[in-house]
Design a protein that fits this description.
Blueprint: H1 26-32, E1 62-68, E2 94-96, E3 103-105, H2 109-112, E4 118-124, H3 131-140, H4 156-164, E5 174-177, E6 182-183, E7 186-187, E8 201-203, H5 221-241, H6 250-266, H7 268-273, H8 281-287, H9 291-305, E9 309-314, H10 334-358, E10 365-370, E11 374-375, E12 380-383, E13 397-400, E14 403-404, E15 408-414, E16 421-423, E17 425-426, E18 433-435, H11 440-451, E19 459-461, E20 467-469
Parallel strand pairs: 1-9, 1-10, 4-16, 5-8, 5-9
Antiparallel strand pairs: 2-3, 4-15, 6-7, 10-15, 11-14, 12-13, 17-18, 19-20
Helix pairs in contact: 3-11, 5-6, 9-10
């Protein structure tokens, strides 16, 4: 348990936000291209100054989160149990990596050759047994074990965006490439009481498709002129109605949206950052000419260009029939599903790690790979609900693994940390941590430490005006501290 000091409130961190009066997301405003800003009801959301705003972008720390929606089996990835009983042990053997003493699943041969460039945390556990609850615990520190329809606390990405935002940037500070935001009808991540101004800039679609493009970025000169003229006209209109609104700071929020949109519309550097065609074919091939591979390549380009928080979610057709990692037997034949998606995963993640190191970004950029939880060590057998990729025909009894928040493995690479190590351990069946158990609070503290965010002192006011610490428990994982 970390020793806490009283939360300090200063003009730098104490922001009163009554919340949005209407539901108007930042993506919709950017899509409007400065043609209008109806529906904003934000107050005082942009007065926090980034603590490291003066630091050169090439030196500012950043995080790339690769999110495995649905929860990957730790036993078939990074915590194999080859000696477990047959009703626990899957069909795949473990293989040695290039670091003596570290073994991973044979499904990940590329990652086995670069274990010196990552650390495995094998002892993550929490109490969120459903996808929404598990995701909210890992991403926002919400301790509730039950599922919620949406977050009540902001996720760490939104918090980092809030603390480190710099309106002078020509590239959004928080970008979601295939966003981490929903699980079915549940919202599993978001800014909560920070308001929609701190949502990510969303990049949708498949970056591997030839027609892939990101709208509202780097339009041509004539369009820029028209948009900027609209902005002047808009500002005049806002000035005329200024006296009709209260003094809560709504106009300042509008100005922030305008500034970000202008930067995106007029910046050649921003346009270049999103342009994968600038990469050599050989490198694109190395990542994999598929959605996950090109998502990871785009994430690398974005942090190299100056974005500090980039998330990318691995789901969709590359997962199998139900388009996620939720390998209940009713959804997938768990072992066929893992064998199907593992080559895409192995290629994309290993390429990302190698590329970060090859470009000298490994002290600045921390790559994290995880989902909301692991899977049940004991194999279950249930009838399939439908045939398809990695699933037998309806009614076919097949093996599966269910939700398991009691054990999960996270991968960390770069960030200046000591790599080539395993932290923690689970029991011989992979059911529970028996060494160095860590929880979501420890994970979040580790992320905040890397980003230089004072998680012990910063509090943000919720909708009622009550100051809420960004983290209420947990300590940075010492083994993942930056090396000297």
């Amino acid at each position: 348990m970390v020793s806490r000091v009283p939360v300090r409130h200063t003009s730098q961190f104490d922001v009163r936000c009554p919340g949005p009066a209407w539901n108007c997301g930042r993506r919709e405003i950017l899509r409007a291209g400065l043609a209008g800003f109806a529906g904003l009801g934000l107050a005082d959301l942009f007065r926090v100054r980034a603590r490291a705003a003066s630091t050169d972008a090439s030196q500012r720390t950043a995080v790339i989160l690769v999110w495995l929606r649905g929860g990957a089996s730790h036993l078939e990835t990074f915590d194999p149990k080859p000696e477990a009983p047959s009703d626990y042990r899957g069909p795949y053997r473990s293989i040695h990596t290039n670091v003596p003493g570290i073994d991973i699943s044979e499904l990940l041969p590329r990652l086995s050759t670069i274990a010196d460039k990552y650390a495995l945390l094998r002892s993550v556990a929490h109490t969120g047994g459903g996808h929404p609850a598990g995701s909210l615990q890992v991403l926002s520190g919400d301790k509730a074990p039950q599922d919620r329809p949406k977050p009540i606390y902001p996720d760490w990405m939104s918090v980092a965006h809030y603390v480190r935002r710099d309106r002078q940037r020509d590239l959004p500070n928080y970008i979601a490439v295939n966003p981490v935001d929903r699980y079915d009808n549940f919202v599993i991540a978001g800014p909560a009481y920070l308001g929609p101004a701190f949502e990510p800039f969303r990049v949708l679609g498949d970056p591997n498709q030839p027609e892939f493009a990101v709208p509202n970025v780097g339009v041509d000169g004539q369009q820029q002129l028209a948009r900027l003229r609209s902005r002047v006209e808009l500002r005049g209109g806002l000035d005329r109605i200024r006296q009709q609104v209260d003094q809560s700071g709504m106009m300042e929020a509008v100005d922030e949206f305008q500034a970000e949109a202008i930067n995106l519309l007029t910046s050649p550097r921003a346009a270049a950052a999103f342009d994968l065609t600038q990469e050599p074919d050989e490198l694109r091939d190395r990542y994999g000419r598929n959605q996950w591979g090109q998502q990871c390549l785009l994430a690398r380009r974005l942090v190299e260009a100056g974005a500090e928080i980039v998330t990318t979610e691995f789901d969709g057709p590359l997962c199998g029939r139900v388009a996620n990692w939720d390998d209940h037997a009713v959804n997938h034949h768990v072992f066929e599903a893992l064998a199907y998606r593992a080559p895409f995963f192995d290629q994309a993640v290993s390429a990302l790690i190698e590329d970060v190191y090859a470009r000298g970004m490994d002290r600045r950029v921390l790559v994290v790979v995880t989902g909301e939880f692991g899977r049940t060590p004991k194999i279950s057998y249930v009838a399939s609900s439908g045939g398809g990729v990695a699933s037998g025909a309806m009614g076919t009894v097949q093996p599966g693994r269910d939700h398991w928040p009691r054990a999960n493995t996270m991968l960390f690479s770069g960030g200046g940390i000591h790599t080539g190590q395993v932290i923690g351990a689970t029991d011989p069946r992979g059911e529970d941590p028996i060494e160095r158990r860590v929880g979501p609070g420890d994970f979040l503290a580790t992320i905040y430490r890397h980003l230089g965010i004072d998680y012990e002192r910063i509090a943000i006011n919720d909708f009622s005006g009550r100051p809420v610490p960004i983290l209420t428990d947990g300590a940075p994982i010492a083994e993942l501290a930056r090396t000297t």
